[in-house]
Amino acid sequence: MPKDHGIGASSKRREDVRFLTGKGVYTDDLALHGQTYAVFVRSTVAHGRIKAINTANAAAMPGVLAVFTGEDFKDVGGNPAGWLINSRDGTPMREPKRPVLAHGKVRHVGDAYAAVVAETYNQAKDAAQQLADDTDIEELPAIIDMKAAAADASNRVHDEIPDNLCFDWGWIEDNRATVEEVFRTAPHVTTLELVNNRLVPNAMEPRASIGEYFPGTGDYKLTTTSQNPHLTRLLVAAFVMGIPENKLTVVAPDVGGGFGSKIYHYGEEALVLAAAKKLARPVRWTAERSESFLSDAHGRDHVTKIELACEKDGTFLAFRTETYANVGAYLSNFSTATPTFLHGTLMAGPYKVPNVYVNVKTVFTNTAPVDAYRGAGRPEATFSLERVIDKMCRELGLDAFEVRRKNFLTPDQFPYTTPVGLVYDTGNYQATLEKAIEMADVAGFGARVAASKARGKLRGLGLSTWIEACGIAPSHLVGVLGSRVGLYDAATVRVNATGNISVMVGAHSHGQGHETVFAQIVAEKLGIPESSVEIVHGDTSKIPFGMGSYGSRSLAVCGTAMTKAVDKIVAKGKKIAAHMLEASEGDITFEDGKFSVAGTDKAKTFGEIAFSAYVPHNYPLETLEPGLEETAFYDPANFTYPAGAYLCEVEVDEGTGKVDVVAFHCADDFGNVMNPMIVEGQVHGGVGQGIGQALCESTTYDETGQLLTGSYMDYAMPRADDVPFYNVDYSCQTPCTHNPLGVKGCGEAGAIGSPPAVVNAVIDALHRGGHTHVTHIDMPVSPNRVWQAING
Amino acid sequence: MHNFDFVKPASLDEAVKALSAEGAQALSGGQTLMPTMKQRLAAPDVLVSLTGIAALKGVSGRAGASVTVGAATPHAVVAAEARAFYPALAALAGGIGDPAVRNRGTIGGSLANNDPAACYPAAVLASGATITTSRRDIAADDYFQGLFSTALEEGEIITGVTFPIPQKAAYVKFNQPASRFALTGVFVAKYADGVRVAVTGASNNGVFRWSDAEAALSADFSAGALAGLTVDDSEMIADLHGSAAYRANLVKVLTGRAVAAA
Ligand SMILES: Cc1cc2nc3c(=O)[nH]c(=O)nc-3n(C[C@H](O)[C@H](O)[C@H](O)COP(=O)(O)OP(=O)(O)OC[C@H]3O[C@@H](n4cnc5c(N)ncnc54)[C@H](O)[C@@H]3O)c2cc1C
């Protein structure tokens, strides 16, 4: 019987009741007395010098309360980059200031250079249009192509950065010479140039922020669409606005998806706070969908050359990459970590390859900022590796499964130090591969190829064996790697007098289901019903601290902090029980919600202990404080390393080039699984996004920097009929060795592992159809591109 | 969106009168006009809704002869009610957009707008249908005049469309991956006096008849009859979703599939 309660049960997502019945409360749902509306004036050119902004006409329009330009914020701080990366020559990265509103220059289409606040939204829109008409911007040549940008010193995104280069990073620089030597002598080298396509995050809920200021106390409140309200508070307060942290509350209520784009602090948040102070009225802003396309931090956007050196039998000798990574016009908070430490460190994959060297040149362009997007760096690493391995197998006529088996690390090799600086704690890559082969009925593939052929379609099978580093935390490690913050997390477990429990967690749920899973864990540990546990998140005034949710870290890091706080509750409960039961503390056991004296039938329930803690009539007050509330911070020893094997089957229509994903099999190792249903849901969502990247989604700027795919008329999101019924398995489990729950994280896996499986399957189908000249097709593998590849 | 007045007349005469006012514009299903207004790309002073006029709504016909669709009839109603008369037309209507679009969007709005990637123009042109307006009847061959441009005059309201029913017909649409309008769509209709082939989504000049295919198919109504034909790509649309050569290829591939499906 599967469990129906606690750890390991597929408890129904309690948050879905409000989400699915329209009772969620999102930022834009809040209506505040006296509220006003902000509308941003955004650049329509990719690159330009602001000559003059005449605010007088706009300011005089009906209902207009205030007009802001970059001039108003020139003395406040910039929105900082969270990681310092050094170039190969040891020089620190270039960090141009990212102002609240563009000042002097506009640097991408959608760059906000002014804002209008008015009594109504329409009045603000009208005035924003007027302000745009009254602005004189001298258009400059747009810098769009990364390689051209790095080669041309005359045209600069930031006047002070001559080659538009943020940094030129080598990982690990000491490996470089050895790797070059291996390539000189290797029996076989496979080279592949590829693009990891830029993606627009497209959260269902657009970004929205409300600023409030309370003149009586001088307090500020920011209600905003954030994945990490504490980090936003830190950035707005300490770096940008100079507000003391204890004078600013940041609340992220229900948030409709983020996928990374809502990790970061954005200028709109600072603007609504500044405006709220100026007007002493609430100021609200909600992005229109076209604003989201232009101004949310985008994802991916790498141009990579990867080389694989190997023996003729497919034994890997070395990987070497050269990547151009687009950061867009400004550095966003994680944008320097994403192409480096979330990417280069994964370039050994799950393989025992002795030599790896990664070079990343990060380039400023006149495009929207690029930052972490579901998977963040690890999908780029996985795609490069799994595609070049697939190409090598074709070149040498080797079996893709055999090559993986030959090169996998084996279970006896852990802990394993990779040549790119990580220590994998545990794993069993063979197990997930064999599982996937069984799930996909690889033995029956030939018959399916024939059946497809009879229907006029080419069928292909694609494999990807992926690994990631997640549970993004260990402060000591990320500190060495350049992080300017720590990456622990925190939780407070408050047992109320009546025995029910409020848990305040630093992780933020914007669709993941924390309210359900975290309650399952607390209920299991305390032997109480899940319904007695309430999870509170997203409010800096209620929660001790937290670094938010991204990098598949919520459970592994914050869940562990919560578990440790529960352990403290149990420890204190034992002391109270020892007193009440007149026994020594060492004799008290806690099981199934009961504190008992070992070997007797003397016991107190959890509820009785809680009551006693708050009504301490019979209580060891001399030695123990009343109350039952504990806080724990947790900073793990290492990343966690989920891994898995994905097999994708596609059918290709040669006449139109259309690819249909007809089957997708995932054998994942997430360590211990707390709620199988939610884990499956996370994999479904991640694979759906990966199929979207592989087949549909293209973010295209023309040479003048206009976003050609700025709406759903041209930006193709994957839809239900673009994806198959997923076949998901998580039974291969090697529990994480360094957190007490043994969990690894599953939020990004699908998006990391799936794109190469899809593209490998398409190439396989084309080869089976005789189109052996096609060695690669860049994502998105659209019908047009497939047809062109076949006929080109 | 800018402010506007809204009127919903119950008769065609009242609608014609309302539309003669300065800044007035017809509103049918609003699936094109409302997004345009929200983006502030259109700012009519008065919207004249056509959906309250009973005479502009519904599907009627004579089996084997013709079927008439009122201009303000939503796609979903055509998909359901035209099936008995003209299955290929009903199937086309059922493949437009999504359920929300099909329950609001109308044939009159689609034809007045004449989006180069819209589906109905292919059916109307391939069927040699007649477009009836508040002023006259217009033959399909005279109606479509290029991208977003038609024979309609200022203030003229489409009231209905009459399709002669073919012996065999099919519409095959290849979706533009993002919008799911037709990247290219081909409607093939076989009548006693010959075959008509209309192509949407592909040409810089909007919906067009592929006359070489019509001739070949009139002689031999089989996909094989197209084998020797080539499609000139010089007038084809080239954009993010398909090159001109790709669209030319689609014209031929989809025509063959439409013949096979008819
Ligand atoms: C998400 C989405 C997907 C879509 N997918 C498709 C698709 O796959 N294929 C496809 O063909 N279409 C598609 N459409 C378009 C849709 O089918 C509508 O047909 C189209 O938007 C216009 O019809 P409407 O009734 O909404 O017209 P409206 O938006 O009301 O009007 C459009 C224009 O026509 C004028 N007009 C309306 N009715 C008349 C009339 N009777 N006489 C004169 N002028 C008139 C209006 O003044 C306006 O200028 C899609 C639309 C959306 C929003």
* Structural classification of chain B: alpha+beta
Major sheet details of chain B: 5 strands, antiparallel
Number of helices of chain B: 10
Ligands, deduplicated: flavin-adenine dinucleotide
Distance between the termini of chain B: 44 Å
- By CATH reckoning, the class of the largest domain in chain A would read Alpha Beta
CATH level 3 topology of the largest domain in chain B: Uridine Diphospho-n-acetylenolpyruvylglucosamine Reductase, domain 3
The pLDDT mean of chain A sits at 97
Count all strands of chain A and give the number.
28
User: What percent of the residues of chain A sit in helical stretches (DSSP H or I)?
Assistant: 25-40%
Total number of β-strand segments of chain B? 12
Question: Can you characterise this structure?
Answer:
The complex is a heterodimer of chains A (792) and B (262). Chain A folds into three domains: 27-140 and 204-257 and 262-295, Alpha-Beta Complex (Aldehyde Oxidoreductase, domain 3); 302-473 and 638-791, Aldehyde Oxidoreductase, domain 4, CATH 3.30.365; 488-634, Aldehyde Oxidoreductase, domain 4. Chain A is 28% helix and 22% strand. In chain A, the strands form seven sheets. In chain A, strands 3-5-1-12-9-10-11 form a seven-stranded mixed beta sheet, with helices on both faces. In chain A, strands 7-15-14-13-8 form a five-stranded mixed beta sheet, with helices on both faces. In chain A, strands 18-26-27-28 form a four-stranded mixed beta sheet, with helices on both faces. In chain A, a hairpin with a 5-residue loop joins strand 13 and strand 14 (316-328). The mean pLDDT of chain A is 97. Chain B is globular and about 55 Å long. Chain B has three domains: 5-49, Uridine Diphospho-n-acetylenolpyruvylglucosamine Reductase, domain 2, CATH 3.30.43; 54-164, 2-Layer Sandwich (Uridine Diphospho-n-acetylenolpyruvylglucosamine Reductase, domain 3), CATH 3.30.465.10; 168-261, CO dehydrogenase flavoprotein, C-terminal domain (Enolase-like, domain 1), CATH 3.30.390.50. The chains are: A alpha+beta (792), B alpha+beta (262). Bound molecules: flavin-adenine dinucleotide. Flavin-adenine dinucleotide binds at residues 25-33, 50, 71, 75, 96-97, 101, 105-106, 108-110, 112-113, 118-120, 157-158, 180-181 of chain B.
